[in-house]
Each structure stands twice: as structure tokens, then as C-alpha cells.
Write a structure and sequence with these properties.
- There is one protein chain.
- The chain is an alpha+beta fold and 281 residues long.
- The protein has two domains: 133 residues, Beta-Lactamase (2-Layer Sandwich); 142 residues.
- The protein has a five-stranded antiparallel β-sheet, with helices on both faces. A two-stranded antiparallel ribbon has the order 6-7.
- A hairpin with a 4-residue loop joins strand 4 and strand 5.
- Helix 2 packs antiparallel against helix 4, helix 5 packs parallel to helix 7 and helix 7 packs across helix 8.
- The longest helix has 23 residues.
- The N and C termini lie far apart (40 Å).
Length: 281
């Protein structure tokens, strides 16, 4: 897996971390990837690339529109796009929390000096080593799919808060914060290193992708994720209303994601759960 963090306007590489040997110039690749993304934004009216297969690799994009940042991962075609995107979102959230908590902060931070981002390589490496260790347990492949799906949907859900009014946004944030305080004070969660990795902050959102399946009861973790997802979606419905929620779910492509991955969700026995959760009051 190789990772690029780019300025989406200029194509400048802020940080590049390679775990695979690519016999190409990283800066030339950066320019090509940025150009491809900008082209698709123009052609598809604002929607950039999410994933593509090119040059024998699978490429996944995550765009932060507010900060004009583009996060890209390249991996072998055997890697699932959903999991790569979930991991890339974790990296995006950590980077934004470290360097760009808001647009004004980012404007002051990014003045053309890419050396200031060099220490973030350590953060990426910590994530990567954790994922690599967990992947060595081949029997948990399905669980990785589950983590990828829940991480993506948690990310999409919280993105909706950028669309609601300030009062509703603040109220929903406070409810979710209280929810996670109660979660972390649960006797079963206390002292369980993997369950404690399910966390929330306003800057990073809900993060679950660092869970190591080899160190936990996977069925218990899935149950916790289902319960948290139910509570978060219910909070949105109660504070925003079902009709507006459904419109927001459409705008954030939540239904598109579910339909595009319906076969996988069916295999994971999660298809009916998500369709009922997002569609029914």
C-alpha cells in the first residue's frame, strides 16, 4: 500500500509514504492522479474518483473539499476498495486533526513547505503496522469487510453535519459525545484494548479501523458497532426528521454506497439491517 497526500488544486505532494516498490517517479504519478481527479470532477459535475484499477493496481481516492486535500492509496488489486477507503479516511482524519483543524488553521499552516508534514510518516507507519499485523490472521477477512463498511458509513453520516444548521449540529455532537462517554464507561469496554479503540472526536469523527480482530471477540465487536450505528442514526432522525435525513443520506451517497455494495452486505448479513435503518422511521 502506497499513500499520497496532495494539494488537490496544484497537485503538489505534501507527503508520500511507500510500502510497495513502484518503478515510477512519485511526483509524475502525483500529477497524473490529481489531473484524473480534476477531470472526473468536471465531467461528473463535482464527483471525483472514488476508486479505479490502473497499472495493475487498485487506486482509492478520498477528497477533503474544504481543505483542497486529496488522499490517495494504491494497493494490489486483491485489496478491497472499501477497506482501502476506510483506512485512507482514518489517515485523512488523523492528518486533519494534526495539521488543519479548520480552514483558517490550514491556510496558516500550508505555505509551501512540505517538510513540516514529514513527522506524519510515523503516524501512517503506526497505522500500517497495526493493519499488517491484523491481516496475518487469514480467518478474519470477513471481519475486515465489516470494519470497512461501518467505518465508511460512520464517515458519511458525520459528513452530514456540515449540511445542517449550527444549532442542530451542536446538539447532535453533544448527544454523540455523551453516547461515547457512556460507551467507554461500560464495564465490558473498560480494560478491553480493542473495544476501547472505538472512539469519537469532533475533529476525527468515529474511528474503528484500528481494531485488531486477532485480539478480540469479533462477534462482540460487531454487536457494539451495530448498537452504535443504530444510536447515531436514531439521533439524526430525532433531531433532523426522517424526511430531511433521507435527503441528506441521498446527498452524501449513503444509499448509493449501500446499493453498490449490496452483494457484500448480503454476504455479511447486513443488507436488511442497513436498508431498514436508513429508510424506516
Amino acid at each position: 500500500m502506497n499513500i499520497w497526500i496532495l494539494d488537490s488544486d496544484s497537485g503538489v505532494t505534501l507527503l508520500y509514504k511507500a510500502y510497495m516498490d513502484l518503478s515510477v517517479n512519485e511526483d509524475l504519478v502525483s500529477g497524473l492522479l490529481t489531473a484524473l481527479n480534476q477531470l472526473t470532477i468536471v465531467e461528473f459535475k463535482g464527483l471525483g474518483i472514488e476508486a479505479l484499477d490502473m497499472g495493475g493496481l487498485r487506486w482509492v481516492y478520498v477528497l477533503d473539499k474544504d481543505l483542497n486535500l486529496l488522499f490517495i492509496a494504491a494497493a494490489n488489486k486483491g485489496e478491497k476498495a472499501e477497506m482501502l477507503r476506510a483506512r485512507l479516511n482514518v489517515i485523512r482524519q488523523a492528518f486533519v486533526q494534526e495539521y488543519a483543524k479548520n480552514k483558517e488553521d490550514w491556510t496558516k499552516k500550508w505555505i509551501g513547505n512540505v517538510e513540516i508534514f514529514k513527522p506524519f510518516e510515523k503516524t501512517i507507519n503506526e497505522f500500517y503496522q497495526s493493519w499488517l499485523a491484523a491481516e496475518s490472521v487469514t480467518s478474519v477477512a470477513e471481519f475486515f469487510d465489516i470494519l470497512g463498511v461501518f467505518q465508511q458509513l460512520f464517515f458519511d453520516l458525520l459528513a452530514i453535519l456540515n449540511r445542517v444548521d449550527k444549532f442542530s449540529r451542536e446538539k447532535i455532537y453533544k448527544i454523540i459525545e455523551t453516547m461515547f462517554v457512556k460507551y467507554r464507561n461500560n464495564d465490558y469496554v473498560k480494560g478491553n484494548p480493542e473495544l476501547e479503540k472505538i472512539c469519537f472526536s469532533r475533529e476525527s469523527g468515529i474511528n474503528i479501523i484500528t481494531i485488531n480482530p486477532s485480539n478480540c471477540d469479533m462477534l462482540v465487536v460487531e454487536k457494539q458497532l451495530i448498537n452504535l450505528m443504530k444510536k447515531v442514526v436514531l439521533t439524526f432522525k430525532q433531531e433532523i426528521g426522517l424526511k430531511d435525513c433521507i435527503n441528506f443520506f441521498i446527498e452524501e451517497n449513503i444509499f448509493t454506497y449501500i446499493l453498490n455494495n449490496i452483494s457484500l452486505l448480503n454476504q455479511l448479513n447486513l443488507d436488511k439491517f442497513f436498508l431498514q435503518l436508513f429508510l424506516i422511521d
